[in-house]
Amino acid sequence: MTRLVTRRAVLAGVGVASLAGCLGGRRSGGSTDADERSPTGSSEDETEPSEGSSAGRSGPPTRDDRLPLPMEPSALRDEAVSGGPPKDGIPAIEEPKFVSVESASANLDPGDPVFGVATGAERKAYPQSILVAHEICNDVVDGTPVSVTYCPLTGTAMGFERGETTFGVSGRLVNNNLIMYDRGTETWWPQVLSTAIPGPWNEEPEIRSLREFRVVWTTWERWTNAYPDTRVLSRDTGFAKNYSRDPYGSYNPRAGYYAPNARPMFPALSEDDRLEPKRVVIGARAPDGAVAFGKDRLREAKLLRGELGGTPVVAAYEPTLDTGYVFRNPDEEAFEYRGGRVVDSAGDTHDPDALPLDRVLAFDAMWFAWSGFYPETTLYA
């Protein structure tokens, strides 16, 4: 199914910003890498599989269990729409370079958002201003091949193990969310769902979920205060891009497409009005359900209790990076928040990301996207 609406057309209609130099890209000094070839975007039938057969190639590593889907995988494919640029029209970063904090500071204000990864001995920051033009960075962190991904239309930054393959941008969206594809099997992977669905280049993929890791949405100032020796994704990506202009709006201050009451760009899977469409929640999901905590509410309360799939959970606010973590709390253990740390009933103190409970991966998302993908989610806001 192809709907004749594109990011370019919608952005032009609402006057958010010019897209010139934003979507698609040209490698510096080289031939055109990808262009917006059609004002209506390419349809599935028009887009060719990558050169060479995917037979015998391996896909990304997957987890043993499967994350929930809001409908049958084939139905999700039917909901996919063209975002405008064709397959790889938004080019992933394939050979990322990193620079020091001192070098990156010239291009970042203290309140600018960055996506932080702290794994093993490595600390890396991926500026939102760069990833908004690429959406995927195929990287290696602490010796593990990974992809750090960002969907500007749903406000989601997520990390995945990729094994021997890499991820690319399919050019399609579902519920406004980036549909990635892996270059090993050509399978479609909606970012938030992190689970395979059928697509035009792989009609019958095994429906499995990716291995994820936490990517923290924070600000440049907060991340560098916490990790002053972090490495930072360089603007030297190999593409001629204007990384000083966000085609969708601004997060510093928050405006344009990112404003809490702004409408989604494409039809959403639900119109749950319990929160404004772009209000940020910290969501966690597991095979047995989903839960969302309003980020503003968690920032105020510091600790919030809720339920995920019938199991009590607790969310803890982490003030250094302005983020939150979610833990299963089946025995409903009591905790208190004191001076940025969490105190258990025995009087022991813990960092907010390290309570003595089973932590569930959680991440920031715009409410309309979360509620569309997880319509049965519990909400605490």
From TrEMBL:
Matching InterPro entries: DUF3179, TAT_signal
Annotated stretches, region: Disordered: 20-70
Organism superkingdom: Archaea
Protein name as annotated: DUF3179 domain-containing protein
Species in which this protein is naturally found: Halobellus litoreus
Upper taxonomic lineage: Archaea, Methanobacteriati, Methanobacteriota, Stenosarchaea group, Halobacteria
